[in-house]
Amino acid sequence: ERALQLLELGGSVEEDYIRIARCFEAMRQRCCRLEQDGQRVREQLARVEAERAALEVKLKHARNQVEVEMKKRHRAEAELEKQERKLQLVFESLMREPLGSGMLSREQCSVLSALTGQCLGAALAPGRRSSAVDESCQSLLSHSDISYDHTEDDM
Questions:
Q1: Domain count, the chain
Q2: How many secondary structure helices (H) and strands (E) does the chain include?
Q3: Is 151 part of a structural domain of the chain?
Q4: Which Gene Ontology BP terms does the record give (predicted)?
Q5: How far is residue 36 CA from its own chain's centroid?
Q6: If you ran DSSP here, which 8-state letter would residue 155 be given?
């Protein structure tokens, strides 16, 4: 449009051609700048996509690790409950023994009696969770907050 306007103004033809050539040169330079910007943005996009892919792999590994650790924890808790039941049965068996049976001394019986209402009763309470991990606050990595999206795992 600008080139057409320049031609309509009249004047010398050489001046018009020079103006048109300058306009074309300015447009060419603008196109070169835009091409360079486009190339820079494409490279940046490629870097970001590579980083995203790497983070997705890390997320997948983290999800798998959380799942493995949850299974280990459930197995350990089941084993703990099994051992606690065994300990409770032994404790109850020892407490039923008469003092004269010779299995336990009077001192051992008094220690067991003292433990009845204290640590053994608390330790053998059903449904008790390990106190090694503080679960009173919601963790960002809590297994209940993690959504396992297996649709991307198949890709």
A1: 1
A2: 4, 0
A3: no
A4: mitotic cytokinesis; mitotic spindle midzone assembly; Rho protein signal transduction
A5: 38
A6: -
Mark residue 127 as left, alpha or beta (left: phi above 0; alpha: psi -120 to 50; beta: remaining): left
1 located within any domain: no
CA dist 20 and 7 (Å) reads: 9
Q: Is residue 33 part of a domain?
A: yes
pLDDT (tens digit, 0 to 9) for every residue of the chain, 155 residues total?
776 666 565 557 777 788 899 999 999 999 999 999 999 999 999 999 999 999 999 999 999 999 999 999 999 999 999 999 998 888 888 777 665 556 666 777 677 667 665 554 454 454 555 545 544 444 444 454 555 555 555 55
Question: Can you give the pLDDT at residue 102?
Answer: 61
Place of tokens 């963790």: 139
Output the 3-class SS for 11-24: CCHHHHHHHHHHHH
CA–CA distance, 143 with 58 (Å, rounded to integer): 17
H helix or E strand, kind and range, residue 29 = helix 13-96
Q: Is residue 143 part of a domain?
A: no
Contact in structure between 116 and 95 (CB atoms under 8 Å): yes
CA pair distance 123, 80, nearest whole angstrom? 11
- State the pTM of this model: 0.48
